[in-house]
Write a structure and sequence with these properties.
The complex is a heterodimer of chains A (153) and B (73).
Chain A (H helix, E strand, L loop, with lengths): L4 H31 L5 H30 L2 H29 L18 H32 L2
Chain B lengths: L2 H4 L4 E3 L1 H7 L4 H8 L3 H8 L7 H11 L3 H4 E3 L1
Antiparallel strand pairs in B: 1-2
The chains are: A mainly alpha (153), B mainly alpha (73).
Chain lengths: 153, 73
Amino acid sequence: MSKRLWPVIGKSLLGLIAIMVATLIVGIGVGFLVARGVVDEDNAILTLMTIFAVVLMIGAMVVSVAWMRAIDEAAREAHKAAWFWGGCSGMAVGGVGIVLASLPQAEALQFTAFDGRTDPVAYMAAGAFAMMMLMTLGYVIVWAWWWLARTRG
Amino acid sequence: MVAGADAGLSMNNRLKVLRAERNWSQADLADALGVSRQTVNALETGRYDPSLPLAFRIAKVFGHPIESIFSED
């Protein structure tokens, strides 16, 4: 692994810990306000988690940029190939699921999305997560193939 | 950068010979070029064709023109 990646990994971990600690501290403060009846619990949780998710994803994008700038061009090519071929392949597999799920016959299928939930938002999240996992799986497979095929030996 | 491969062309290079002449390890060359040792290995074995900027860096490190280091198969 490139020596230039260690500072990126270190700063990423520090950033993640900072976000978690900040969320914990704000969460304790919000919890105090909820207990005092100053703010509504559901609204407080939604607001706090929205801010947490947005900050976390912005942080993930910043780390991605730093990571791509720290690696050399061959490693970048591996990621580009993995994103295109692996991501597209994973999306194609997920596409089959989307087509089948859109059939009227699929209405008879009954299953819980996660955590016993059967509401539309839970299904939406489960579908998005499943697509993301398929694309990630494709990404990992193509990245490993690209990198190992060129750098082993 | 695999434009050559896309066009059905492959590239040869003299990286391994030039490196051996200088008694450099792959890691030494990688440090000089600012790439990983794995990338140097991929370049030497012809499994990866460098971008034009990297090809120019390689030429500068070895003190040879690009065309004397890389050739069409």
